[in-house]
Amino acid sequence: MSIRTEIHKQNIVKIFNPKSIAVVGTNNVKGTVPYDILFNILKTEFTGIVFPVSPGEKSICSVKAYKYVVDINDAVDLAIIVFPNTVCHMALEQCGQKGIKGVVIISAGFKEVGEKGLEREKQLKQIAEKYDMSIIGPNCLGIINTDPNINLNASFARKMTEQGSIGFLSQSGALCTAVLDYALAKHIGFSKFISFGNKVDISEIDLIYYLMEDDKTKVILLYLEEVTDGRALMKAARDVTSLSGKPVLLLKAGRTEAGASAAASHTGSLAGNDEIYDAAFKQAGIIRCDNIEEMFNIAIAFAYQPAPRSNKVAIITNAGGPGVLTTDAAIHDGLQLAKFSEETTREFRKCLPANANIKNPVDVVGDAHADRYNIALNGAFREDDVDAVFVILTPQSMTDIETIAKEVVKVSKQYLKPVYASFMGEADVAAGVDILLRNKIPHYILPESMCRSFSRVYRFYRDIDINPHPQRIYTDVDTKTVHSILNEAIKNNHLYLPEDEAVSILKIYGFPVVSSKLATSPDEAALVALNIGFPVVMKIMSDDIIHKSDAKGVVLNINSVEEARNTYSAIIEQVLQIMPEARIKGMQVSEMILSGEEVILGIKRDPSFGPIVMFGLGGVYVEVFKDISLRVAPIDEIIADSMIKQIRSYKILQGIRGKAPRDIAAIRECLIRLSQLALDCPQIKELDINPLIVLEETKGCYVTDARILLNTSTVQ
Description:
Blueprint: H1 3-16, E1 20-24, H2 33-43, E2 49-53, E3 59-60, E4 63-64, E5 78-81, H3 88-98, E6 102-105, H4 115-130, E7 134-136, E8 142-145, E9 152-155, E10 163-170, H5 173-185, E11 190-195, H6 204-213, E12 219-224, H7 230-244, E13 248-252, H8 266-270, H9 273-284, E14 287-289, H10 292-304, E15 312-317, H11 320-332, E16 336-337, H12 342-351, E17 362-363, H13 370-382, E18 388-393, H14 401-412, E19 419-423, H15 430-438, H16 447-463, H17 479-491, E20 496-497, H18 499-508, E21 516-519, H19 522-532, E22 536-541, E23 554-558, H20 561-578, E24 586-591, E25 597-606, E26 610-617, H21 622-625, E27 628-632, H22 637-646, H23 650-654, H24 664-680, E28 684-694, E29 701-703, E30 706-710
Parallel strand pairs: 1-2, 1-5, 5-6, 6-7, 10-11, 10-12, 12-13, 13-14, 15-16, 15-17, 15-18, 18-19
Antiparallel strand pairs: 3-4, 8-9, 8-11, 20-30, 21-24, 22-23, 22-24, 25-26, 25-28, 26-27, 28-29, 28-30
Helix pairs in contact: 1-6, 3-4, 6-7, 7-9, 10-16, 11-16, 12-13, 13-14, 14-15, 19-20, 22-24
């Protein structure tokens, strides 16, 4: 842990649990941010002492004001700075002189406005480091701590949030106000509500670790517009899950990358930013959400209900159609319908109407009152095979919605199994829904959202105990030679590593490479082909030609000496017609693998997450089908297996229509070796192995083509 991280850890505790606060730059103008910050702190009855700091005022909100923060005689734990951005550095300097360690800077006009703002941020950072201070912000809404021992609303939100167990972190202040309004309408409470803005000092990583140790927080929600340090975010999420068992839910803005330039390799073009985010978040155990509603649908399931022991559910409904819809949604999301015992079935047959469906899903029929729901709920909860209960209600003329809602609350409190509800509709069911939400029963307008949310919760707890496999390190690799090859190419201003050198590197890293040799004349090509053994493949070798097939520089299935001699001349003639300026080294003559499935392996270096490993269906159609999986290096055997199984064409590798299964173990080993190569060699920006031809089970695989794009700014 760095010294700065340790300082943050100590100071963040003071920021959220201050005994005294200075609001630096406040004023008496109602309806302005400087005034509202102070007013909100006072209105929510903060349990500590508040010091307004305003050079031009004697008092604000009937509280004595100070000209400068250094004029305050008492100790101050937290400063909220709301001065204009041009003088924030002076206010921060005084806070440092005063000995204040925690600061929240609300003021905007920093890096979000350009170069001048960025310079202001650098100035703030320098002052913070000088005095061992920690800053949240600038350009943020503020912070909220609902702990009744603190009661802190140091923000300019319109209302204080309800108390709860959800910790919310957001890079966007404007989104925070919308989220607060949404949450208040649904009685969703928070433990901490934090807008961290431009994160000039304290980052989301620091705050995640703080919430991990916060005993008031059960679930961590995060909204990000940019991921500055992806590997640190992944580590923080893994630590939270493994050390505290708390889930991390994330909403990441910017799924599309409009106007992005085409990448220089298959891996580069296929591993787009959002695909990398998806892979990294999944690998770290982060639950990625598509929108605010989905995020809170899942969050309340975690916050309100116990963890499910299995994915077996019982569905109780007063209408057959919604019961069927819920069943379909449950099965689609990987859930199972629990089976009732004979005892429960007899009880339902005895107590429910003759036209009721007493199997799962249980239909208590449209005219059902609370008594039927009571029978169905108790029967389902008592079943050993049932580990969660879904309650569906459609508002019909005879339906006593509020009484049924109260019955759901009453019965569910008697059991330690999760219960979710979907009272379908809006206006008619509103009062019943309010009863459910106030009593911490997760409610969903649509049964599909209910099933999806439960599925995410179940999968989180199912996977939380999966231990990572020990990382395999290959020690038989001559990294010194590999670095020499790469560094020499970069010094010679190569954008791409020559293919023969790329293949040499893979060979050094233990990849199975087909027999091949460079020929520089038709006669030499014929001799090389004869020595390798027919059939052979011939490929043009030129630093100017990256996509050989496009330049008609590849010929397969050459079966004789004469054919090899003629093919050499024919390829050069065709290539020069298409690319007359190409500098041709000769022809690569390679062994031809007659049978096998083509897959692709690759590397891409992401600025935030570092090296990314890619796997997918190979050959010339890889960019058409885009059947790929991605992971952040390093990967172990479990991760490599998950990559292989994730692609849609995995069944082809398993063997279909009489074809033998492919050697998946050989693919797995290649992926792990590729991961090590990616970590060892930052000089590689992108890499394609396309295709890797995979033979039958136990018979291995072969690299037949490789392309390496160099990171020209890096030399080891």
